[in-house]
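Bench notes, afternoon.
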Amino acid sequence: MTRLIGKHGWTAGLGVLLVLLLISTKLIQPDFGISGLDSLARAALPFALATVGMAVVVIAGGIDLSIAAMMAVASVTAAVLMDGATGGQSVLAVLAVLALGLTMGAINGALIVVTRVPDIVVTLAMLFIWQGVALLILNAPGGGAAPWLRALIVGGVTLPGVPPVLTQWLPKGLVFLVVCVAVIWVPVRRSKLGLMFYAIGSDPLAAFRSGVPVGLTRVAAYALCGLFAALGGLSVTMGTGIGEPIPGPYLLASVAAVVLGGVVLGGGRGGILGPILAVFVLRLVRLDLTLLSVDPNVSAIVEGTIMVVVVMFGGVLAMRGARHDHGG
């Protein structure tokens, strides 16, 4: 039991903090209820999907600065393909966007592996490239989203034969997030590929000597990040009904949530649940500041300070871990 608490204590602490923030939100705004939870889930969804993608790459020992730009490409591609499309065509459009996300991520990973240039440099360059691609596809917010797709994340869950009062408190946006993670990440985490992500994140040389194809595994990690970025971009279009060619504030927010969620920046340690909880914690902090009528500029400073402190703290832990691993 002690070992279990030690292993999952940080995640459990985030869960407790989330509950406390929900209670404080209810105290600040007594009207906060079903619609408030729905709005929170929809606002957090793109951030959560970006964070999951970033977490996968960080666990594998890398980082992807182009994640927000890839989300923009996915968002505008989905909006353009679905504008005026039939139900069947929109399903094909979704599949095309997911394939595009995988491809963009794989290109990032392949460039890092082939050129051997640090991932932070390659993905920074790719950030500008994907930004340009997004603006070429759609130079201003526009396009459309299939009604059935929007309905997947709007409102609370309703189940046949079950009184709505029992299920409407569960936002569809949260269910969509859980399904995406359960379908994509859970099988990968339990497979040999998931073990290889952690292996190359912990010690690439040791992983290589153990027979792990380090290069291909790194490409797979970035491809998976691209897939989650595509889902994040798709969720932006689902939430707004249009494509957004300008990358949103997902990069620093996703890195901050990854670190706050207990994933070590050096790689090899951490999970997905903690970062997802961290996304909702950060979104609730922002919501509470808004409800308290704090000046938006002050709110931006507070949010930025929290993110910078969290990322710096994560960097310090990563350096300590590296020194400890090398016996320094």
